Amino acid sequence: MSPKEYQNFAKNREPSRSVLANCVRAFLVGGLISIVGQAISEAFMYGFHMSRQEAGNPTVAVLILISVILTCLGVYDKIAQWAGAGSAVPVTGFANSMCSAALEHRAEGLVLGVGANMFKLAGSVIVYGVVAAFFVGLVYFIFGIGGH
Description:
Structural class: mainly alpha
Shape: extended
Number of helices: 7
Oligomer: single chain
Number of strands: 0
Radius of gyration: 20 Å
Distance between the termini: 68 Å
Largest sheet: none
């Protein structure tokens, strides 16, 4: 079977995907993650008398912790299969990708397994984030935006 014939064969047997249903599921799960994050933030503000700004960092830390625990239990992957991009976009998706890579390569050792492979996927996100932040900061500096 030639590669072109195989592609046609595989395409004919591929299940159809509803774009609208995928968008709705992504919206619902992404929104639910945001609601949980807001509830955690409100709990920090109410329970620990933090300002909105002070509650931001511990809220992100708790969301990351929840994501890592759900990834270790195999729950987050099931959510991600159903929700698609809705679970991948927030910070919880990034934590899931880091934790999944660490779990997958833990048998290879802490340095060459977990340490080296965990940042293969996340490394590009970190690099692009740092570069984008640099350029945004440069634009702010050049145009004097946000200065005190």
